[in-house]
Request: fold
Amino acid sequence: MNEDNILNGKKVAQSVKDRVKIQVDKLKEKGVNPQLTVVLVGKDPASQVYVRMKGKACEKLGILSNTILLDKNASEDELLSLIHKLNNDVNVHGILVQLPLPKQINDQKVIEYINPQKDVDCFHPHNVGLLVNGSPYVLPCTPAGVVEILKYYKIDTEGKHVVIVGRSNIVGKPAANLLMQKNRFANATVTVAHSRTKDLPSITKQADILIAAIGMPQFIKKDMVKADCTVIDVGTNRIDADNEKGYRLVGDVDFDNVQPFVEKITPVPGGVGPMTIAMLMQNTVTVAARQNGLEPEGV
Reply:
C-alpha cells in the first residue's frame, strides 16, 4: 500500500495528547487535578474496550480516571441518582455515560441529566446549542478529531464543498455545525446526505472533502468520489475474516479501491478512531480548567 496520501490519525492524536499533557501539568501546578468519571451499564464487549482505552489514555496524561460499573439490569432511577452525585462532586470535572444504554434506560433523559459543565461528550442540548451558535463550551469529540486531522495536515476547508454522509447526533450533525462556522479550518459549504438521499453518488462526487459516517461497511465506492477529494472515514465496522479473531475492522469507505484514487484518505483502523479519545482528553482538561475559572490555553 502506498502511504503517500494516508492521513495518520495516530500521529495527530499523539500531537493532541502532547498538548493536553502540558495543560494537565500546568493545571496541577494551580492545584487542579482533572478527573474524568466514566459510567458503564452492563458488559457490552465493545463498550468495555472503549472504556479501558479511555482509562489508559487518562493514566498516561496524568488525568484522574474512575470507572463506575452498573449491572445491565440497573434502573433508570439508579443511574440518574448516580449522575446526581457526580454532578455535585466538585472533584469530578467530567462525566461520561457510555452509550448505548440498556433498553430500560432512556438515553436522552440521561444525557440531559448530566451537568452541562461536566458534559465531556458535548451531547447535552445546552452544549449542542452553544455549538450551533458558534460559541461552544466543548467540542464534540469525533467531529473535533476530524477537524484536528485537517488542521494537522493543513487541508484548507474555507469555501470548499464538504459532503457528510450520515446525520447522527454524534458525528453528522455536529460535524456539519463545526465546519460551517466562521472559523479557520471551517467556513465550508456543507451538504449533509444520508441513506435516504436520492442519487447519493451525484452528491458525493461533488465533495472536495467527503466525511463518511453512515455506519455501513465499505459503503463509499470509488465511483462515488472524485480524484482530488480528501476522504475522512469515520466508520468502524466488523466484517468476517479468516483470522484468529474471526473478523477485521473496516470503515464506511471501500479503502482498498478508493485509496489509490483520491488525494488524501484516513485509514481504518488508525484514522479518526484515535482522535476521538484524544479529543475526549482535551475536553476533560477544558472543563476542569473552566470549572476553576481558567482557560486551558492559558494555564
